[in-house]
Specification:
Layout (H helix, E strand, L loop, with lengths): L5 H4 L6 E11 L2 E10 L2 E6 L1 H5 L5 E4 L3 E7 L13 E6 L4 E6 L2 H17 L3
């Protein structure tokens, strides 16, 4: 996983569901790294080069994700918007956009994880 292994990302008792390469839309470009789904959070871990630029890990508890869906295509090749992307709408009204392969699977897995967290009241 670049400079960080999955066990470095996990909190005590947290379980890894999957990790996959991906990009996070940021400003007018994208940050390369890995998207990680755990039983508690979605985490984006930037690649080492991005960390050297001062970029940091992003994470959101599943309980704070209001909706999981698709961000429509756009016209900026630097954000990966020439194809549909993963959109995580947060409870506070913000949204994070990720470019990942097998988009339908990522959406389904994250949406299922969010529903499971809600079911346990977390």
């Amino acid at each position: 996983m670049g400079t960080t292994e999955a066990h470095d990302i996990l909190e005590p008792g947290e379980e890894l569901v999957w990790q996959r390469p991906g990009n996070m839309a940021w400003r007018r470009g994208a940050i390369s790294g890995y998207l990680v789904l755990t039983d508690r959070r979605v985490v984006f871990e930037p690649h080492r080069v991005e960390v050297l630029k001062g970029l940091k890990r992003w994470s959101a508890p599943l309980a704070r994700i209001a909706a999981v869906g698709t961000q429509p295509r756009g016209y900026n090749p630097f954000t990966g918007s020439l194809r549909p992307r993963l959109r995580l709408a947060m409870e506070d009204g913000s949204a994070e956009i990720f470019l990942v392969n097998d988009l339908a699977s990522a959406i389904g897995d994250i949406a299922s994880a969010v529903e499971r967290r809600r079911a346990v009241g977390d």
